[in-house]
């Protein structure tokens, strides 16, 4: 029998970890639970941050970690370009209202929308995320 394993967080590589944590904290109404600035000799944008669901709500946290060589993903993927190897799926009750909220928080609506009940959005650092019913 395997040992007990528990997923506690997903970490997103980014050029702006603290700013991206604040974006998703606002979008999801989750608190930023941890934040750390750059280490010695690192650029000002380096560091990491984490958001977690409010107390009593289930789900893993989301971490944002500085990537020195971060390349903004292209969505949908294109040959020879940086692709998004993963994305966040966010369930919503009202898709038009959720899109409006995401835009107000700083997201951008992706140019291609392949499904009627899903909206692909791009966060301020270019990561795609999906809002779905």
Automatic annotation (TrEMBL):
Residues 34-53 have a biased composition (Low complexity). It holds the Pfam family Glyoxalase_6. Gene3D superfamilies: 2,3-Dihydroxybiphenyl 1,2-Dioxygenase, domain 1. Residues 10-132 form the Glyoxalase-like domain. InterPro entries: Glyas_Bleomycin-R_OHBP_Dase, Glyoxalase_6. PANTHER family: CONSERVED PROTEIN, HYPOTHETICAL FUSION PROTEIN. This is VOC family protein. The lineage of its organism: Bacteria, Bacillati, Actinomycetota, Actinomycetes, Streptosporangiales.
């Amino acid at each position: 029998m395997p040992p007990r394993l528990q997923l506690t967080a997903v970490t997103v590589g980014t050029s702006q970890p603290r700013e991206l944590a604040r974006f998703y904290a606002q979008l999801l109404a989750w608190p930023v639970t941890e934040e750390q600035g750059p280490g010695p000799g690192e650029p000002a944008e380096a560091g990491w941050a984490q958001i977690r669901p409010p107390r009593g709500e289930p789900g893993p946290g989301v971490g944002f970690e500085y990537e020195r060589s971060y390349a903004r993903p292209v969505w949908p993927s294109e040959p020879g370009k940086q692709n998004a190897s993963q994305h966040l799926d966010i369930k919503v009750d009202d898709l038009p209202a959720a899109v409006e909220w995401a835009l107000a928080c700083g997201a951008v609506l992706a140019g291609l929308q392949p499904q009627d009940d899903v909206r692909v959005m791009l966060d301020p650092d270019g990561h795609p995320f999906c809002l779905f019913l």
